Amino acid sequence: MSELDRYLQAATRDNTRRSYRAAIEHYEVSWGGFLPATSDSVARYLVAHAGVLSINTLKLRLSALAQWHKSQGFPDPTKAPVVRQVFKGIRALHPAQEKQAQPLQLQHLEQVVASLEREATEAKVQNDQPALLRARRDTALILLGFWRGFRSDELCRVQIEHVQAAVGSGITLYLPRTKSDRENLGKTYQTPALQRLCPVQAYIDWITESALVRGPVFRGIDRWGNLSEEGLHANSVIPLLRQALERAGIPAEHYTSHSLRRGFATWAHQSGWDLKSLMSYVGWKDMKSAMRYVEPSPFLGMTPLAEKTIGAAK
């Protein structure tokens, strides 16, 4: 790979590249389209999959085709009026409510953390180091993910070198890149210590128990208690969360890693945060994106001290 190719590749995120490659393959191989494409062929491709693929999937396919043509120096056929009109018609004739993850409500957060604490206590009694490590890791991941509204890939990319945590005070961490950081400038996040359900203490407990000093914070743990050198993959967060919820007696079918982010957003909204403060805290640039995460149903409240402490971080 040349230096030019290396920098061009760095400008696009791994997940986006994989999705775009799959989209182009679907257009060429599965459907039998030709590249470069004409606007008529793109319109026919959309019609062939209207009502079969979701609106969001079709939007992704169009983005991939647009990116391919731009990168190869060809005119972008997806911007043609016929393509725009066909897509508009598909949205009108095939409306579909977007599936969203169920927000993790505060009482369920408390329930799963209490369950993990019981697992940790039992593991200590039985001298089961692998179980103790998993309980400490999962507690830290869930609490940090909830109170910071992190995405799964952000949690998996947190590095110990970029984290500073102080008992009873707070935690500061730096992420070199995030989904909303289009310029790759990096961002520093802060979270205060709480009276209960504290992400700071959970992080310190995990790092202390695991004896990690550098590299990814959240890693795989094998049956013997050995920690992986690599960070968890973002796709592993969903089964990790669901399994912890199930063990706590909470049906977990409709929960995903976005449940942590949606859970915090809904709690903050119901606790009186204005939308601008919520967007700034979580990192949303677009108001529509923020509102998609806010669930109108009320949450059980936190202790006054916790509300006051989190509110200070807005």
Protein topology:
Layout: H1 3-10, H2 14-30, H3 39-49, H4 55-71, H5 81-93, H6 106-125, H7 129-148, H8 152-156, E1 163-166, E2 170-175, E3 187-192, H9 199-210, E4 219-221, E5 227-231, H10 237-247, H11 258-270, H12 275-282, H13 287-293, H14 304-311
Antiparallel strand pairs: 1-2, 2-3, 4-5
Describe the structure using short key phrases:
5 strands, DNA polymerase, domain 1, 3-stranded antiparallel sheet, elongated, 8% strand, 54% helix, 314 residues
Largest sheet: 3 strands, antiparallel
**Quaternary status:** single chain
SS content category: mainly alpha
- The H-level CATH homologous superfamily of the largest domain, spelled out, is Intergrase catalytic core
> Overall mean pLDDT score?
86
What is the H/E order?
HHHHHHHHEEEHEEHHHHH
Instruction: Return residue spans where pLDDT drops below 50 for at least 5 consecutive residues.
Output: 297-309
Q: What general form does the structure show?
A: elongated
How many strand segments? Answer: 5
Quick rundown:
The chain contains 14 helices and 5 strands. It has 314 residues and is mostly helical. The protein starts with a helix and ends with a helix.
